[in-house]
Amino acid sequence: MRTAPDSGKISGVFDLLRADLRQSRRSLLRTPLVTAAAVVCLASAVAASAAVFTIVDSVVLRPLPFANASRLVAIWGVNPSRDTVRRGFSWPDAQDIAHDRRSLDRVAAMSNAAGGMTLSGTGDAVQIPTRIVSGNFFEVLGVPAALGRTLTAEDDRPSSVPTVVLSDALWRQRFGADPTVVGRGLTLDGRAFTVAGVAPRTFAYPPGAQMWVTVAHGAVEVVDDRGVGWLEIIGLTKPAVTPDAVRAEITPAFADLTRRYHAARGPEDLSVVALERELLGDTRTALFAVFAAVLVLLLVACANVGGLLLVRGAANARDTAVRRALGADRLHIVRQAFAESAWIAAASGALGVAASASLLGVAKGLAPADIPRLADATIDMRVLGFAILVVALASAVCSPSTVVRRYATDPTKGRSWNDRRSSDTQARARGQRDRAVHRAHRVGGRRGPDIHEPEVPRRGVRRRPRAGV
Q: Average pLDDT of 162-170?
């Protein structure tokens, strides 16, 4: 039968821990310069690693704010002979490619270049970054409205009322987060639009867009022109369908459209990639490389702090020997060494997390503006959890050097075993030198007065040779 744990033993363990923490804190405060150097060194590495992890977590590790993000693909044309990176589709071509595809569940389109519309009537006229999209754009991405509604297929009709969806940032900055903005009339490029709704705070696709309008009302001049390729197609694949399967199905229709309407362009090919890969591009690799470099910096900082603690332990070897001579066992000495490392790691973690917020702001200012979701990078609980993990690992890395030094302390002489071995070697050398002098005395007694006792110069003092030797 299991019994309840002895509360006295548990309280005794906590008493020992509190005593070790108090004693280790006093010990660290007796050497403030070494302690401060260790804390600043480790805090700098913690701040850098926390700031970079915040960016990596926001841009790469967090899933895209879309429903079924793994099934979304980006489709555009390329011209291999001219080495063109990508070529857009006209609105009629996009509709033909999207028509009746077995591999795709739904298809939307958006302008493949950043543009803007002039907002007036609400203060000073200002250019707002705007993307022209098909009416089912938000439906394909699986993004609901935070306020009001999103665009629909009905908004694609030329006879419909022109509508616009605002970003959360624009709604707060320009309209003061007014919930009655839905249904309000706006003037964009001199034309009347009605606010349909506000997008969620986490939605910012394409990066930088602050308004979304439909193709029928945002590109009136080129909506029926097949010769202008200005749209990128976004498709939601059916379950278990790969981008290669989508490309294999769409390529014949694309080749037929090219032959019929765009023969002058020359041969063209089709590119179909996962939307996450198209959105991040080479950013993922670059951020992981920076993160790996910061982790190496963290290891270097841990090594430096371990060296500082090792030197500090050597300087305090006599105090440790006195404590052991008074009855402290090795386990107590080891516990105090771990407690000192824990104090340094905790102080470094708190200082590093506080400094990482400022460092994150600097990194945002220096980073390219086209990195997606960079503006959403903030210090949150995930970053704090990462910082706690880093602090724990740093404490584990820095502790062994101090523990080994404390454990190897000789209680009788206040020196480590290595110091004793060095002293024994010096004693043997002095003994050999004394025996050599003794033999020289004996030889001098037999051969006459010309042989003198060889002088043994003291360390650091030069002696002139005697005359006649």
A: 94
Contact indicator for 38, 354 with CB cutoff of 8 Å: no
Is 6 part of any domain? no
pLDDT band at 425 (very low <50, low <70, confident <90, very high): low
Q: How, if at all, do strands 231-237 and 104-111 pair?
A: antiparallel
Tokens of 148: 């009001």
Say if residue 252 is in the same domain as residue 125.
Answer: yes
Residue 436 lies in a domain: yes
* The last residue of a domain, from among 412, 430, 456: 412
* 155 and 286 housed in the same domain: no
Q: What is the CA angle 274-275-277, rounded to 5?
A: 70
Q: What is the pLDDT of residues 39-83, one digit of tens each?
A: 999 999 999 999 999 999 988 888 888 888 889 999 988 876 665
Quick one: 222 and 347 in the same domain?
Answer: no
Q: What is the mean pLDDT of the chain?
A: 80
Residue 39: phi and psi, rounded to 5, are -65, -45
Count of the separate structural domains present in the chain: 3
Q: Quick one: average pLDDT of 447-464?
A: 49
State which amino acid sits at residue 74. A
Shared domain for 59 and 98, answered yes or no, is: no
d(CA 180, CA 175): 10
Give me the pLDDT at residue 234, please: 94
Asked if 51 and 92 sit in the same domain, the reply is: no
Domain termination site, one of 412, 436, 463: 412
| Domain span including residue 286 | 13-63+282-412
Q: Which of 78-92, 177-191, 241-255, 343-357 has the lowest mean pLDDT?
A: 78-92
Tell me what the mean pLDDT of segment 127-137 comes to: 93
d(CA 131, CA 116): 7
Q: Copy the structure tokens of residue 113.
A: 């270049």
Give Cα 384 distance to the centre of its chain: 12
Burial class (CB in 10 A: 0-12, 13-18, 19+), 113: exposed
Q: Which DSSP category does 89 fall into? A: B
Beta bridge partners of 88: none
Kindly state whether residue 254 falls inside one of the protein's structural domains: yes
The torsion defined by the Cα of 154, 157, 158 and 163, in degrees rounded to 10, comes to 30
Q: Are 402 and 309 in contact (CB under 8 A)?
A: yes
Helix (H) or strand (E) holding 233: strand 231-237
| 373 in a structural domain | yes
Does 248 lie in the same domain as 154?
A: yes
pTM here? 0.69
pLDDT tens for 238-297 read 998 999 999 999 988 888 888 888 877 766 788 899 998 888 878 888 899 999 999 999
Q: Is 207 found in the same domain as 100?
A: yes
